[in-house]
Specification:
four-stranded antiparallel sheet; 37% helix; globular
Length: 213
């Protein structure tokens, strides 16, 4: 299997007396969905931020296609995140000052994509996940579950190779959760890589493998 993303001897701490990761390594392949599980406070979300180049490790390396990318400067890191990664944060992380549609479009527009084409694709995704709402609506006007599905639409719109999702089914009813799991599986079937932090046994059971922190 092709290794798309890898961690080599990652070390990270916020408090030196309580390291979250110490010499941690793993590989993530094209075509798979990997569940990251473990008790709260073990650094699962932090691991996603490290893999997605939002944090720099204290030691070790993050590699994309075999090339180290963890130490890139801010501008190339941002460009790489926009072109290769899609993120679904635990709290959705939608910009409350912008419309729901603009939130979904932001990464594609940052990459210089065509707005009309991106908006048409966004409408399709939002229909699929049941969050096609009135034009001009802001994130504060949707529920937590809707916000999570909107965040997934944003992540999928750019067709990233690597999808990183933090508790993507945490606020969802069973039907919506199943839609999310199907989307993760389809992403992998198309050759993508998905890394999912979750406490949801149903989601874990539909992943290709599990990493316990």
């Amino acid at each position: 299997m092709t290794v798309v993303l890898a961690a080599e001897d990652l070390t990270f701490h916020y408090d030196p007396a309580a390291p979250l990761l110490r010499g941690w390594s793993a590989e993530f392949h094209a075509g798979e969905v990997v569940a990251v599980t473990g008790p709260s406070g073990r650094g699962k979300s932090t691991l996603l931020y490290l893999l997605g180049l939002m944090l720099k490790p204290r030691g070790g390396a993050v590699l994309l296609d075999g090339a180290p990318v963890h130490s890139l400067s801010d501008r190339p890191r941002s460009a790489l995140r926009a072109s290769e990664f899609g993120f679904v944060f635990q709290d959705a992380a939608l910009d409350a000052s912008r419309t729901v549609l603009d939130n979904v479009l932001e990464t594609v527009l940052y990459r210089g994509g065509d707005r009309a084409a991106a908006a048409a694709r966004a409408d399709e995704l939002m229909d699929r996940f049941g969050v096609r709402i009135r034009r001009g609506a802001k994130p504060g006007q949707v529920s937590g579950g809707q916000a999570q599905r909107i965040a997934l639409c944003r992540a999928l719109l750019g067709e990233p190779r690597v999808l990183l999702a933090d508790e993507p089914t945490g606020n969802l009813d069973p039907t919506s959760s199943d839609l999310v799991v199907q989307a993760l599986r389809e992403h992998a079937s198309a050759g993508g890589t998905a890394v999912v932090v979750t406490h949801d046994p149903a989601l874990v059971s539909r992943c290709d493998r599990q990493i316990v922190l």
